[in-house]
Amino acid sequence: MTSYTDRSSSSDAVDAPRRQLLATAALLGVAPSLLSACASAATTATSAAVGARRRLGPLEVFPVGLGCQWRQGTAPGVVVDSYSSAFDRPSAIRLIHEAVDRGVTLIDTAEAYGPFLSEEIVGEALQGRRDRVVLETKFGFDIDPVSGQRRPGRLNSRPEHIRAVVEAQLKRLRTDRIDVLIQHRVDPQVPIEEVVGTLKDLIRAGKLRHYGLSEPGLQTVRRAHAEHPMAVIQNEYSMLWRGPEAAVLPLCEELGIGFVCWSPLGMGFLAGGVQADSRFKTAPVTDFRAISPRFAPEVLPANMALVDLVRDWAQRKSATPSQVALAWLLSRKPWIVPIPGTTNAAHLHQNLGAAELRFTPAERAELDAALGAIRIQGDRLPPAVALMSGVEAPPKP
User: Which residues form a coiled coil (predicted)?
Assistant: First the structure.
């Protein structure tokens, strides 16, 4: 059984059990309604075991995905994330196996993560499990295909480059198709119509199934969607950063586009992994929080009010802080899917448990009011990174 369906085939999936029921009733000489009643308890149990699914545009996935953003550590065989956590490659593969075996159906990565290393690990881990997941990866940076070094231009979404990147990604991921290919950042030098036109050709060739954009400008989304329907937008979104609520989420709702949240736990902040006096490494590998203004020593103590709020709600709901933060995202819209990353299997299990946590309408209103009263200090991203968000592609000639 596959873990996702396109809307075009969803009616077949619904009709198949009904056809089987009618055929079985005819064979046994009993009324279909009797068989249906007898089977209802088993069907309910099965549905509960499978768990809820969410729509991302034309795709259907488990409510919580897995983000795989890893790079080579300073020692041979060591794999690190962007927040000072480390494990080895076999452990990374086991983590992905555990996620898929527990029902995760959205696996997210990118060529830039490593570069290349994360895709290689994901490709190896999904052998024998590939058809059980929606595989999502990204392109868009100007990365040397041999050395992995980023070239001076930083971004590159020229059609010929996209085609070359996809061929390399398919090899690293050990697959014949990418389910969702996302432009990592909008290229200010290439009209989005050229980008999407290239992606549409790759979809026709069977190398891609769907596409999306990450941190795009609003008009670029409209232009891209008009060229070919978009499956997802992937932006940062969490209790720590609620920027998408102003315009991006309404646009997704209008156009029927799914929304994937990167950094849904605020880079570990919402999970309780940061203290008021925390300081972050800059060597030998830089922790991204060391250069993020909202984690600066002068503002971190004030921002801890959000951590305290999440911790209090975790106690109230008999849950973990990460579960509260993820469940809050899931409560916003039925087409929102967070992709928390981790190097820890226990944390993975906690994150997946968020799919079962619910807020009553009164609890939701109370929590939203408390969140609204907290003012987060410091910009969400370093200036050079922030400049790549909300960019509009140039007009088509």
Answer: none
Give the contacts of 285 (CB within 8 A, at least 6 positions apart). Answer: 71, 73, 74, 80, 84
Q: What is the spatial distance between Cα 167 and Cα 173, in angstroms, rounded to a whole number?
A: 10
Q: Verify whether residue 237 is a known catalytic residue.
A: no
**In this structure, how many other beta carbons lie within 10 angstroms of the beta carbon of residue 126?**
21
Place of tokens 């769907």: 210
Q: Report the residue count for the chain.
A: 397
Rounded to whole angstroms, the Cα distance separating 344 from 109 reads 17
Dist CA 9 CA 375 (whole Å): 46
The pTM (predicted TM-score) of the whole model is 0.88
164-198 pLDDT tens trace: 999 999 999 999 999 999 999 999 999 999 999 99
Tell me which residue of 381, 212, 159, 372 sits closest to 291, measured CA to CA. Answer: 381
Identify whether the C-beta of residue 352 lies closer than 8 Å to the C-beta of residue 104. Answer: yes
DSSP state of 391: B
Closest CA to 304 of 340, 278, 327: 278
Cis peptide before 397 (omega within 30 of 0): no
DSSP 192-250: HHHHHHHHHHHHHTTSEEEEEEESB-HHHHHHHHHHS---EEEEE-SSS--GGGTTHHH
- pLDDT tens by residue, 47-105: 223 458 999 999 999 999 999 999 999 999 999 999 999 999 999 999 999 999 999 99
Q: Report residue 19 as tokens.
A: 């056809």
Alpha carbon distance 13, 394 (integer Å): 42
Q: In this structure, which amino acid lies at residue 168?
A: A
Token pair in block for residue 371: 């969140």
Those residues of the chain that have pLDDT short of 50 are 1-50
Two tokens, residue 287: 């922790």
The active-site residue, picked from 4, 113, 211, 237, is 113
